Amino acid sequence: MAERKKQSLLTGAGVLAIATILVKLIGAVFKIPINNLLGTEGYGYFTGAYAVYTPLYAISMAGLPVAVSKLVSQNMELGRIKDAKAIFKVAQKMFFLVGVAGMLVLMGIAIPYSNFNEAPMNYVSIFAVAPCVLFCCMMSSFRGYYEGLNNMTPTGVSQVIEAVVKLLFGLSATFVFMKATLSHYEKNAVNGAMKLFGVEVRDEAEALAAIYPYAAAVAILGVTLGSAFGLIYLYIRYKRKGFGFTREELVNSPEAKSNKDILKSLLAISIPVAAASLVTNISNLIDDITIRSRLVTALSDGFDTVKGMYLDTLTIDQTLDENISTYLYGMHGSVINIKNLIPSLTLVLGISAIPVLSKAWTAKNKKDIKVCIESALRVAMLVAMPAGIGIAVLAEPILNLLYGSGNEHFAPAAAFMMTVYGLAVPLFALASPLTNMLQAVGKTKVPIVTMAIGAVIKVTLNFILIANPEINIKGACISSSICYLVMVTINIIQLTRATGVKLNYASIFLKPFIAAVCCGVGAWLGNFLLVDVLGIESRLTTILAVCVGGVFYAISILLVKGIVKDDLEMIPKGEKIAKVLAKFGLLG
Q1: In this model, does residue 421 exceed pLDDT 90?
Q2: Virtual CA dihedral for 358, 361, 362, 365, nearest 10 degrees?
Q3: Residues facing 190 on adjacent strands
């Protein structure tokens, strides 16, 4: 079989990480202005649609592609090229059926779900995002196949295309829609009263309340169009470049198994993998429902207490009393956007680890198994620990940096949630890589059990904490953090038992933690000197404080020898970097 150029775990992860960074930057350019355009209440409709869409999306993006990637990787390692080709063909048909079913289910539950959550107009946004399930399913057949070949580039490029289209359409269309509808209201209202979208409104606050559900739907249409264009790119690439192997390789390959056998193999892996994704995302859906319902309870039992805690920001944003729960839910969603930045980067480590670890597991190569697992976990911590502590230390300044420009009142109200989520970022960052690695070594049922345990913990704590008027929405971040602490602990224990690998916990956790604490100290000192001592307070001071923290981290991670040779050897020019660090005694 001809020699094939492959991406290593960290090279493949690097490709996806670059794409993810671009996607997140584009996403920030999208979501932050969208948040400002829609207002916190309107953003509640936007995130509400995502909450019900995500479980179905997760099947296509986190479940079924894992099965395709793992099977393709295993067959390529065994030289069964025709099987790899057949797997892709069967997967395409399978994913299409799943996508159609998911889209129809989402449309069918849109109105009942919205009514149940006491946000009846949320169905408009849910309808707008429903076709995205089909498009994402079809994309997943291509992505899973290429990932199985250790080629992460098609996935990365399609993700960037999705984000760009989402930005261009979603932001511009929402801006035009908001401007046009508000202009229509201002021109046609008589003493502030008129009929808008079939609703009688008496003033500007009520007009905005009527506009927000439709504006959120326009914004989320950008997400749907983005997925459609990502699919178009992957299809064109496939038509132009084919399957990614030579004719000689195909001719010399053993005959493929029957489509029936391939389907059975796909289902044997994808069902528990998809079930794990479903458990997570259905628990997130239940989480969403309990957050909303318990917020209603908190307001019912202590309306004055809850409103008093957020009075300044509610007053400035002209939030009606009956919409306070949606407003607080939207505030939580805004903080979640920041919290999710780092886990979305470490997610690529799990995706990249699937074919590499599957190959090592198939070959029973104990050394490669250990290197793969330790590298994935260590790199996740090298990224997540300093970022998480930095977010916790600079919670309010970061919120002002991202959501400022007239929204400075928002940061103090949301700062506590930012701090808690920041401290828990390393736990969120480990969740997906651990799940993917368990799936790669055949322990597909373990994540289902741990996710179910986590879901019970999360919902129980939501029920207790959020309904307390003095805690309210803050309880959501506390319960999430405890939930992930339990899940990550169980999954690490199960992964080490399954593989027989003895992890170097000092290298994976202790050294990054020490350096991350130094990072937090540096960021806090930088902010303190600039703001409290010199009296300079602006977005630039926050950026400078982050940079100071970064310098502290870079120096401290080298001093504690937190960089390991095995990790560097998996990246381009890594051996040269390793030699330089070793020369100065800075290599772990």
Answers
A1: yes
A2: 130
A3: 193
